[in-house]
Amino acid sequence: MGKAILQFLVLTAIFLAVWFGLSRIHYVQYFHLDNISSRTEKKVGDLIIEQIKRTNREIETDSATQALDDIKYRLCTDNHINPDHIHLHLIHSDEVNAFALPGDHIVIYTGLIDHCDSASELCGVLSHELAHLQLHHVTKRLANEIGITVLAAAAGNGNSVVISKIIKMLSSTAFERQQESDADEKGVEYLQHAHINPKGFADLMLKIADMKADDPVHLEWLSTHPDSKKRAETIMGLINTHHANYSPVIDDNSWQALKDAAANE
Questions:
Q1: Residue 252 in contact with residue 258, Cβ under 8 Å?
Q2: What letter would DSSP give residue 224?
């Protein structure tokens, strides 16, 4: 009886040791499981945009499209990013939100445009989301939380349940703290290289953080970016005064046209 108990204890100890060892392995990194194929990424991104458009209207007026294109080209070309690879979508929604999607898509809700007092404020958010794309945060997160096999299957058969889950995850939950910090830092770098004043980014975060909203659901970008006041201070600390030759990203008429398009649609 004693021998059986001893054997049981030894086997249990071995099992626990093996389990503990295996639990310490980061499988996504070790086996390179975050390497989502560009084809799968593009297909998933296209499916997400299609599903968003089924429930929310995309605004494609000439004035709005031109203004966003001008901002995109300024941010991208001055940072050696091909602007034709980045797709901006202005979607009608009261939410103060913007988020990056696989396939190099960035969704901007009209509620965000409404709460921006200048194009530089909007550029701050866009530079942050662009950084998430360029740092591959979106694909890494999907690989970790959804899984490559599930993503590939969703891309193949257009699984609406999986696509809805991805939309909810990317639009309403935050990235890891370090990823958010990295995106802030890279975003400020993008702004300065494009000669856009990063102070607008900090101003917007402070402004939204101080808002006393009747409906907190509409402040989605704030809820996914906690500690906004502290991060605004960090953003101001990242600004390199040697790159202070800032200039407007678009003129006042173009900015007002974008605001009007977002408000009237």
A1: no
A2: T
Cα 63 to Cα 120, 158, 253, 254, distances in angstroms: 18, 33, 10, 7
| Residue located via tokens 């007026």 | 61
pTM of the model: 0.81
The residue behind tokens 């499981």 is 33
| pLDDT, tens digit, 9 for 90 and up, residues 118-137 | 999 999 999 999 999 999 99
The two tokens of residue 50 are 């299609």
DSSP 21-72: HHHT--HHHHTTTT---HHHHHHHHHHHHHHHHHHSPBP--HHHHHHHHHHH
120: how many CB neighbours lie within 10 A of its CB? 23
Rounded to 10 deg, the angle between the 62-77 and 252-264 helix axes is 130
Structural tokens at position 70: 């001008």
Higher-confidence residue: 252 or 2? 252
Q: From CA 115, how far away is CA 131, in angstroms rounded?
A: 22
Which H or E run includes 241?
A: none
Distance between CA atoms of residues 223 and 218, nearest Å? 9
CB atoms within 10 A of CB 106: 21
From the CA atom positions of the chain, what is the Rg in Å? 22
